[in-house]
Specification:
alpha/beta
Length: 219
């Protein structure tokens, strides 16, 4: 959607950073086919495109994204494959669907489409639980880190920030989480310096997605 996206990607890649692009692989991405081809030729080993595929079945994906979006997303995935991009997928688990069932479904889909994605590798497909801000989730305590054998520094908000300009706002704001861009308690100021402070994990998504769910919007 941002006309400067390719320049932004090149600026990061030429400085030696690895870049993960989150995309739906539909029309906004396809508008940049030529410059993206150039990027993958120059920096293919540093660039990963993660495509949102809301389920391994067309009906569920289109219930979330709208009619006709399945074929467009699959077409975008196949185009990325054909150009030699490193590709990954962000998917969802339905209520009552185990992670093993979901990964098996995606594995069958990837084989049928000839996509070089390992559905059993967490870096190649990230599965998110259903988003329900009203869900009853366990409280996160300091003891959780030892029980789960996960350090607090592993949470994305420990080291990452997102800059958003909300509709009607005069200036952008720095927020702690890509899942909570409109929750004011996760708005950390207008500069990265202001936002360089601890984040309290006091939203249901913190437990359901990140701490207990093990999901990450980063690479």
């Amino acid at each position: 959607m941002n006309r400067d996206i390719v320049a932004m990607l090149r600026a990061a890649l030429t400085r030696g950073f690895e870049v993960l692009v989150l995309t739906n692989a539909m029309r906004p991405m396809r508008r940049f086919e030529a410059p993206l081809k150039a990027l993958v030729l120059e920096h293919g080993d540093k660039l990963t495109m993660r495509v949102s595929l809301d389920h391994h079945t067309p009906a569920v994906h289109e219930a979330e994204r709208g009619p006709g979006t399945w074929d467009k997303a699959i077409g975008g995935l196949q185009w990325l494959r054909d150009q030699g991009f490193r590709i990954a997928v962000a998917g969802r688990r339905l209520p009552g669907e185990s992670e093993e069932e979901a990964r098996a479904g995606y594995a069958r889909l990837f084989v049928s489409l000839g996509l070089p994605i390992d559905a059993w590798a967490s870096a190649q497909i990230v599965l998110f639980p259903e988003m329900d801000a009203g869900a009853d989730v366990p409280e996160i305590t300091e003891a959780c880190w030892g029980i789960l054998n996960v350090p607090p520094s592993a949470m994305m908000c420990a080291s990452s920030r997102m800059v958003v300009k909300r509709k009607g706002a005069v200036r952008p704001v720095v927020v702690a989480c890509t899942l909570l861009p409109y929750d004011d308690q996760f708005a950390l100021g207008q500069t990265l310096a202001e936002a360089s402070r601890p984040v309290m994990l006091n939203h249901p998504h913190c437990a359901r997605f990140c701490v207990l769910g093990g999901a990450s919007c980063s690479g």
